[in-house]
Amino acid sequence: MGATELITRQFTIFVAAGAALFVAIVTTMVAFVVRYNRKRHPVAAEISGSFWLELTWIVVPTVLVLGMFVMGVRGYRVMRQVPEGAMTVKVTAFSFGWQFDYENGKRTRELFVPERRPVRLEITSRDVIHSFFAPDLHVKEDAVPGMKTWTWFAVETAGEHTVLCAEYCGVGQSDMLTRIVAVPAERFEAGYADKAAQRP
Fold it and tell me: How much is the average pLDDT of 146-156?
């Protein structure tokens, strides 16, 4: 399972768990309001507590949080372990745009990648802090001046994916848009080998 698929599954599980807890808590609150309202019980009853109830609301949340923590660590490991054979692309952010430098010396303003091949991005910034963000690929990494950060991804099918800056970096931040264009491997290699071409 790739990083994108794993993160999507984990995100779905977290949202579903949160929604289930929300429904359970609100339902319990409404039930208590109806059952123990002042009209039905003008005199409050003395409640001494319940060992098993208290144990349950300690153990259950602890198990849920630890489970989400373990899943998060697993997802983080997948995100930080670049598969062998990954293509490296240097990403330079600037106000207000992106520059992509490939291993063979090509330079583009849109990121072209072959489908089904891991791509490692080495990211930096020319001026202020930016953030490389491809929402539908679940890729996000800050671009920091004087520092190199990195991330990786792989696109399973050919297509286009929007890239934007997720860090407020100035008045032109909303215009800081580009694309990841995934193409079949044969087409990518043909364009990559063409020294005269400006992009794959």
Answer: 94
For residue 196, pLDDT over 90 is answered with no
How far apart are alpha carbons 181 and 160 in whole angstroms?
5
The angle that helices 51-80 and 3-35 make with each other, rounded to 10 degrees, is 160
Position 152, amino acid: W
Angle CA(34)–CA(38)–CA(39) in degrees, nearest 5?
Answer: 85
Extract the tokens encoding 28.
């319990």
List domains and CATH numbers for the chain. 3-80 (no CATH), 87-193 (2.60.40.420)
Cβ distance 111 to 79 under 8 Å? no
Residue with tokens 């059952």: 35
- Note the pLDDT of residue 198: 47
Per-residue pLDDT tens digits for 21-30 = 999 999 999 9
Over residues 10-21, the pLDDT tens digits come to: 889 999 999 999
Between the alpha carbon of residue 145 and those of residues 17, 110, 151, 164, the distances in Å are: 39, 21, 16, 18
Confidence of residue 177 (pLDDT cuts 50, 70, 90): very high
pTM of the model: 0.77
CA distance 75 to 2: 10
Number of neighbouring beta carbons within 10 Å of residue 188: 20
- Give the bridge partners for 132, in sequence order: 141, 165
